[in-house]
Specification:
Elements: H1 2-33, H2 38-45, H3 48-69, H4 73-77, H5 79-82, H6 85-94, H7 107-123, H8 130-148, H9 154-188, H10 192-220, H11 234-273
Helix pairs in contact: 1-9, 1-10, 1-11, 2-6, 3-8, 7-8, 9-10, 10-11
Length: about 270
């Protein structure tokens, strides 16, 4: 009787280990292939809606610059031929895990606007001061960078790099823990199918808990503290993280149901033998 009670306690402990290992493995695998992936971030942040909003805001800001400088906004908007909005958005986000700046303001961009402005003025035989045109070009480059580029991305970049460095270690530890717990339980039962049921219960419980946790996170938005500017990226970022939690919830639910069905069928076979 004492051994039986001890075995029950050990079975519960090993089942919990398998449950936690399952939760960690599912979360780490999906995290590494989604929000810790540059391609996933670009795909979800560079959307047609974001591109259209950037173009609209860029046009409005260049209209203001036209009134200030006397240079038509069509001249400034020529930048979209050399620096297409979608390409610039991609450039801003594709290096989230890298070290380069996700802002787009560069001396080359200023020089490009400088060339556009001087070509227009020279073509229309208009007099101008080079310093004034250079200042206007700097303003145009700032407008483009502030509207299309991304600021305050360092926090997200740090988190992504931390996740990439840590997920592989987590997966290895979780899987090794689950294997050790599963093998130990298989030695504790003369009927291996009963051990199989305990293992499956741990997997099903861990996956179900992960699905529930992901759905709760989907509701409370734990990534809301990340402030990414400009504001036009906010809805795209929220949508991206919402999809991530739904992916985790869906994958976990499928694994949980599959494990539960296997456990149910195995229990049925055991009862028939008994």
């Amino acid at each position: 009787m004492e051994f039986s009670a001890t075995r029950k306690i050990l079975v519960v402990i090993f089942s919990v280990i398998i449950a936690f290992s399952t939760a960690i493995t599912i979360t780490a695998l999906i995290t590494n292939s989604t929000i810790a992936s540059d391609s996933y971030i670009v795909k979800n942040m560079v959307t047609s809606a974001v591109t259209a909003e950037c173009e609209a805001q860029l046009s409005a800001k260049f209209t203001v610059l036209e009134a200030q400088s006397g240079i038509p906004k069509s001249v400034f908007e020529t930048v979209k031929n050399e620096y297409p909005i979608s390409d610039s958005l991609t450039k801003a986000f594709q290096n989230v895990s890298g070290s380069e700046s996700s802002e787009l303001y560069t001396d080359d961009l200023v020089d490009y606007f400088d060339t556009l402005c001087t070509e227009y003025l020279d073509g229309n035989s208009m007099k101008y001061q080079k310093e004034y045109i250079h200042n206007t070009s700097e303003k145009a480059a700032e407008i483009f960078s502030e509207t299309v580029g991304v600021r305050n991305l360092q926090t997200l970049r740090d988190r992504v790099n931390e996740v990439k460095d840590f997920t592989l270690t987590l997966i290895v530890i979780a899987m090794l823990s689950a294997i050790v717990a599963g093998l130990t339980m298989s030695f504790m039962f003369s009927n291996k199918q009963r051990a199989y049921v305990c293992i499956l219960s741990g997997i099903s419980g861990g996956a179900a808990g992960t699905a529930l946790g992901a759905l709760i996170c989907r509701l409370i938005h734990p990534f809301a503290s990340f402030i990414i500017l400009p504001e036009i990226y906010k809805s795209a970022f929220n949508s991206m993280t919402d999809k991530y939690f739904l992916f985790v919830a869906a994958a976990s639910a499928v694994i949980s149901v599959a494990a539960w069905l296997s456990m149910f069928l195995t229990n049925k076979r055991i009862r028939k033998k008994d």
